[in-house]
Prior knowledge:
Distance between the termini: 41 Å
Number of helices: 8
Radius of gyration: 23 Å
CATH architecture of the largest domain: 3-Layer(aba) Sandwich
Number of strands: 12
Strand order of the largest sheet: 7-6-5-8-9-12
Structural class: alpha/beta
Largest sheet: 6 strands, mixed
Shape: elongated
CATH topology of the largest domain: Rossmann fold
Amino acid sequence: MNGLRAAIVRGARRTRRRGDGVHAPRSGDGYEFVQLRGYEEGDDPRRIDWAATARVGSLQTRVFLEETSLVLAAFIDESASMRVGRKRRLTDAADDALRAWFGAAESEDRTLRIVDDRIVNGTRPALHARAARPFDLRRTLTFAAHVLPVGASLLAVLDGFDLPAEESPSAGPVDELLLAVAARCDATVLLARDPWYDGLPLRGLRRVRDAESGRSRLLYFGRRARERFVAAVAEREKRLTARFRNAGWRVGALDETDGRASLDRAFGLIGALDFAPAGA
């Protein structure tokens, strides 16, 4: 079993008890009985078959074969704000992570992707599927909460710009959806890191364009403006991370340079990505 799949399996065997943030193993899955053999030192005493022991006259242990088939599900934010980056687009890093996610699947696993309001089954079709309408996080979460199989492993890659602010009246229903999805699935989110999180390169009077709306305006970028930008980026990432974690999601940062490594970091397979903006 590859390292990423092993980490996903460990998460898939744990379901969230809604409301307390605690995970507990699911009962009754993951193992198939293979044979009986003589007890050996170090065997789990709970696997001693006492009926067989009585028949044979010596301790007999039940041997199990690990049997875990996964449902690997995913959805990706394909909005215009994900098509920016310093060296490469965030969507390219998202595709890296998606290929690694589905690449962890073995023959008995299922792969599916939520695109718009439909499920795309199979690794190849899922990797090449593209949305026909603007990404809507609330609609996608609603769909996932009702359609994904219980116990599925879900990967979401998004920038969170359409997540309502915590003080917004619409924030409550969305947070309930985050909880509902995490109660149904082992949910992981890679939050797209702002390409200029370590410092805004702009100086003086510049025309900037909003990636989502396409509108542009002239702005002056002095030292204080750049400092405020760095602080705002750090605070936004901190708040988004806390919000998803409080809802029971595993959270990682999507680094535009390497989506696969971003996924590995989220599962603790390699070291965490430090968040240390310039000037902070």
